[in-house]
Amino acid sequence: MTDAALPAGASAPDPSAAIKKRLAARYRAERRFRAYGIAAIAVAVAALLVLVGSIVSQAYSAFWTYELALDVTVDPERIPGDPSNPADIQRGDFGVMLQNALRGEFPDETRNARIRELLALSTRLNSATLGRRVADNPALIGQTIRFKMPISDEVDRYLKGQATGRDWVRLDAAPAVTPDADGETAALRLSPADAARIADAVGDAEPSVIVFSNGGAWRLSGPAAQTAEGEQLIAPGAPGVEDRALILSTPEADRRVSDAQIAWTETLRARGDVKAAFNTYLFANTDSREPELAGVFAALMGSIFTMLVTMVLAVPVGVATAIYLEEFAPKNRWTDLVEVNINNLAAVPSIVFGLLGLAVFINFLGMPRSAPLVGGLVLALMTLPVVIISGRAALKAVPPSIREAALAVGASRTQAVFGHVLPLAMPGIMTGSIIGLAQALGETAPLLMIGMVAFVADAPTGVTSPATVMPVQIFIWATSAERAFEARTAAAIIILLSLMILMNAAAIFLRRKFERRW
Amino acid sequence: MSISLIVALILLVMIAAGFRLGQARAWRAADGRAGALHSLPVYSGYYVALWTGVPALALVAIYGVLGDGLVNALVLGGMPQQVQDLSAARQETFMAEARAVAAGLYAAPSALHAQAAAAFARLQGLFTWAVAALALAMAAGGLALARGHISRQFRARNRVETAIGILLLACSALAVLTTVGIILSLLFESLRFFAAVNPVEFLLGTHWSPQIAIREDQVGQSGAFGAIPLFAGTFLITIIAMTVAVPVGLFSAIFLAEYASPTARKWIKPVLEILAGVPTVVYGFFALLTVGPAIRAAAEWVDAAVPFLSFAVPTQSALAAGLVMGVMIIPFVSSLSDDVINAVPQTLRDGAYAMGATKSETVRQVILPAALPGVVGAILLAVSRAIGETMIVVMAAGQAANLTANPFESVTTITVQIVTLLTGDQEFDSPKTLAAFALGLVLFVITLLLNVIALRVVQKYREKYD
Amino acid sequence: MNDREPGGHAAPLTPPTPVVQTHDMHGHPLASLPVKVCTRDVDVFYGDKQALFGVSMDIPDCSVTAFIGPSGCGKSTFLRCINRMNDTIDIARVAGSIEIDGANIYDRGIDPVLLRARVGMVFQKPNPFPKSIYDNVAYGPKIHGLVSTKDETDAVVEDSLKRAGLWAEVADRLDAPGTGLSGGQQQRLVIARAIAVKPEVILMDEPCSALDPIATAKIEELIDELRENFCIIIVTHSMAQAARVSQKTAFFHLGKLVESGPTEEIFTNPRDERTQDYITGRFG
What pLDDT sits at residue B427? Predict the structure, then answer.
């Protein structure tokens, strides 16, 4: 805005001067307004990034898990009944076998409370897996087999560093340990350098300090000094962690995994019995009360069955309605009524469809609760408007010349539509249908109404067996108390989102591949 | 293999046979020259197949829907007075148990059960066989009848096309049926609820505590069904959501429509669309485990930093749910607003620019006033979506029916209460369960009204510039 | 630009002449008028497509200059260059120079907002803002800060409406929406809106094409009155209108300025065959 830009014209009172005076302020307002726009976009993008970031950061740890491998003796005496009958074998007491195997790792522990803590390293529910394995192969009876299972969720969280901060201090010299008479405590003598390093690592906090040596483990009862009192967690002698001190920043009272459990876990890890692995349980297992065993398999199957029902109903009926409205419907009140209804249904809250399903399908028609059949029906009614609207758009995009050409060679209206218009509109119809189904795949609220929120232990085998679906599984896990479910919920979300992205990608692919410009 | 499967297979075979026979008959009638016929032989095939399949399948479908009820009624009718006198709920339980006994799931707990189970087994067997036989007979009859129609002049194609037309019309009727179903089921159950609870108390009462005893003899079984706290909670969360979604969505739309380069548009639009595609349960998880704790932590920090101020926020709060719902609705507002802003004719923009208006002046003083009805319609639609949204509030807003305007407290909404009332143990006829339908009716009416108004406003606006 | 046809310019490439000889509507020569707008070698591109080829011409002040030519010949494009309306189209690019009172409006220091306050524009379709009649007219003076009190605004609105010949018809309903007026009234309202900021040049892009003959006659009358104080440039597809209202006429064809000169001369004695063909109705 140089002053020399526009020399004043012939007209006497020059308005430019007045305009110029205001111009700076107007441009400031302009920049401010533009900044609001950029800020709005930034807020939306940031919200998406935070959303995705928080889910991914919580989910990544759930895709791998720590497994505990034990040498389990399949004790024939614990399997009553006919050892050749798989059903009889599964009734065997495999839980005790697992417990014996775990106790066998630390045979010196005799205190009952401690044994209970030790057995909590893995859930008893693992016995079912062991039972199935033996039932599949009865020759294992009487043998000692290597059995892998997921370690308890709280220990898993500890091993992933989510339960407490961990700091290892390597000891230069093995501490001299003088156990007292009952074996519960011991006097530890550390080298001055080691004591100083531990004290240094501890700082002002009051964490737990566990000293490992000669396969044994002691928790220091007082501050780290050259002579320290220690509570014996593991008796020395067997293989284990060598000459190290473990400093745990979260006090024992504030975490769900005890110092003793940590000492056992670290010892088992040093023995090679605890290893990280890809979390196959998450994909292959059904829901479980124990987070480490819970998987999405049943929900995935439930989603597939539900989507099948939805697809079989919504797509043909939706396409038929679209064809009727676009190609055959006379302009009358009935057609108007149908159109108004479709527009309104598209905006009815999803939960109302759930109420419809509960009242009509379950209570009036007596269909089974929690079944993919009812879920699929409800979702089909919800998806119908999407399929109809996209179907009509696709049919509209076919130029009238195609219809006229078919009619002109003597085809009937029906022949023209089904033989010529519909095939050309098919890619568009499929794209819209897939997008509608992807939306239905993520729907939760109406399914809660028809009882798909129940705990389902087995994968559904048909459209009438009790089932849950992915989004509802996410809801169930998200509202569970165990913290380990948080990561699994996030992982389940990632799986669900991947499925939805896959479906949308398929839709985009279809559109790109078959898109026609007339 | 069950009887129904066998019948279905036989029917399929008969339909295929009907098609073949019809086609063959047409060829014969034409002496092998298709030109001699009114319709192509394939249409004669379809015609016969339709006559074979449709009546039989219709019978099977009707039996599938109504059969159980009929058997139930007949069994019940044959039971002694003592069963007839049971309450409706008890009767239902009894019949379900008898049915399970008949299916061999467990042994009969009483002689009455055994009697009912025997009746069930007998009647079900009888009906199944009867329906199967009748269906097959109808298929055979239909086939023979239709085959007899076929001749050289027979207009098979027209008949088949009429059938297709009826099918298409029936499909389009489903949308209307769905609406009718929604309205009837909500009305019917709500009326039963209002028989037990005064509608005025429901709509204007300020105390909500639907905890009704499971057993009738328990004391204190009458809950309080004043829904005002629910309406208030819904309103509060909707306001918070709109406070986020309207400015962000509107300014995003303005930026995209008026400022962004085509490249920027190409990248930003999909990002907003992703926000729209995320399932609501994922937003709920985000609100519950990320936003809620973050707000609580922030409140704790404020509490510690500012003396004399006692400030605590629960993890589940109206604010957490409202903020996340706002994020969910941003793309909704922005894409609808984008549409209406783009619908403002270019001549108005040109007029403003030609007057020497800057871009922001053009947007604020010309485009927005012109697009206002459309934007208002978009916001109304967004409000309707916020009111009907369920999962975010179920997970992040809490259950407590607080009547409050404080966004830092937990509140409950219409949708949350519907979910709470209908999940878990329930008895279908209790007011507690029926209350969910009354709430559903309120929800349906509100959203319907908002949508109708919004669509009207948007339509009027479109007409103005078309 | 290789395909530029040097012979395409009817106006020779001379330095800007200080005065232009024009004639009034009856063919009588007017007093010499100073040059208001002077363009040299103006090319316009939409993306890869060139829409205007080396247009050079002088436009006199206090007179009406008409651009005529068949559809798509570039006359509107050229008009939109004079107040830089082409800036609002992302893919448009303008080369060459357009000077108003000797200053190139495409210089880097020139602010289009300031420029457009000096060069008003009236469009083909009347486009009153969705505001009242009063606010429509007051819009320009308000955003540019030309008025500070209600009295001043009232005066500007009244004056502008009077000069646009609309005052008598709307004086009693200034608060009514501008979009409620008839087409011809809307177009005069838009003209009032344009002159309210006291521009020096007024561009009119087929201002009567959406109007009936009576409204057209009124607008033409108005244009003739406004000529006293403004440099008016009008694009029209009606040769009769060009002959009626303008003192100077320029004929465009396929993006080129074929010839320009006093209206009388163009219509009675065109130098170029294409002009002759167009005027006699052989194409267009």
Answer: 62
CATH for B245: 1.10.3720.10
Which tens digit of pLDDT belongs to each residue from B129-151? 898 899 999 999 999 998 888 88
Q: Does B212 map to a domain? A: no
Going A363 to A364 to A368 to A369, the CA torsion angle's sign is negative
For residue B278, give the DSSP letter: S
Containing domain of residue C17, as a range?
6-128+206-279
Residue C109, domain CATH: 3.40.50.300
Residue holding tokens 């790109």? A512
Is position C45 within any domain? Answer: yes
Residue B39 has φ and ψ, to the nearest 5°, of -120, 155
Task: Look at residues A350, A367, A349, A363 and name the one whose alpha carbon lies nearest to residue A309.
Answer: A367
Residue C7 makes CB contacts below 8 A (sequence gap 6+) with none
Distance from CA of A469 to the nearest CA of C (A): 49
CB contact under 8 Å between B354 and C85, yes or no, is yes
- Structure letter (DSSP) for residue C181: S
**A232-239: average pLDDT:** 86
Q: Are the beta carbons of A9 and C144 separated by less than 8 Å? A: no
B228 and B93 both lie in a single domain: no
- B319 & B420 share domain: yes
Q: Are B282 and B402 contained in the same domain?
A: yes
Instruction: Give the number of C-alpha atoms closer than 13 A to the C-alpha of residue B94, restricted to the C-beta side.
Output: 22
Number of inter-chain CB pairs under 8 A, B vs C? 67
Banded pLDDT at A457 (limits 50, 70, 90): confident
CATH class of A297-514: mainly alpha
In angstroms, the CA A296 to CA A186 distance is: 47
Do residues A317 and B171 make contact, with C-beta atoms less than 8 angstroms apart? Answer: yes
Mean pLDDT of chain C: 85
User: What are B188-237's pLDDT values in tens digits?
Assistant: 999 999 988 888 888 988 888 876 544 445 444 557 888 899 999 999 99
B354 closest CB neighbour out of C114, C121, C130: C121
Query: Quick check: is C210 in a domain?
Result: yes
Q: Which chain C residues are closer than 8 Å to A19 by Cβ?
A: 114, 117, 144-146
List subunits contacting chain B, requiring 3 or more Cβ pairs under 8 Å. Answer: A, C
Interface test with C, best of B355, B362, B375, B460 (most C CBs within 10 A): B355
Mutation target to probe the A interface, by most A beta carbons within 10 A, among C144, C147, C201, C228 is C144
Across A77-86, A188-197, A259-268, B151-160, the highest mean pLDDT is recorded for: A259-268
Which of these three, B94, B124, B154, is where a domain ends? B154
Q: Residue B42 sits in which domain range?
A: 3-154
> Is B351 inside a domain boundary?
yes
Burial of B111 (0-12, 13-18, 19+ CB in 10 A): exposed
Residue of A nearest to C34 (CA): A10
Q: Which residues of A touch C (CB under 8 A)?
A: 1-2, 4-7, 9-11, 15-16, 18-23, 26
Check CB contact of B2 with chain C, cutoff 8 Å: no
Question: Inter-chain contact C198–A9, Cβ cutoff 8 Å?
Answer: no
Backbone angles phi, psi at A307, to 5 degrees: -65, -35
| Domain spans, chain A | 20-59, 62-156, 164-254, 297-514
Q: What is the ipTM of this complex?
A: 0.88
The average confidence (pLDDT) of chain B is 86
On whether residue B254 sits in a domain, the answer given is: yes
Residues A473 and A496: beta-carbon distance below 8 Å: no
Q: Do C118 and A11 touch (CB under 8 A)?
A: no
| Residue B389 sits in the same domain as residue B250 | yes
The answer to whether residues B115 and B250 belong to one domain is: no
- Same domain for B129 and B254, yes or no, is no
* C68 in any annotated domain: yes
Do C63 and C247 form a contact (C-beta atoms < 8 A)? yes
Question: pTM for the complete prediction?
Answer: 0.86
Domain tally, chain B: 2
Nearest CA in chain B to A479: B395
Yes or no, beta carbons of C113 and B348 under 8 Å apart: no
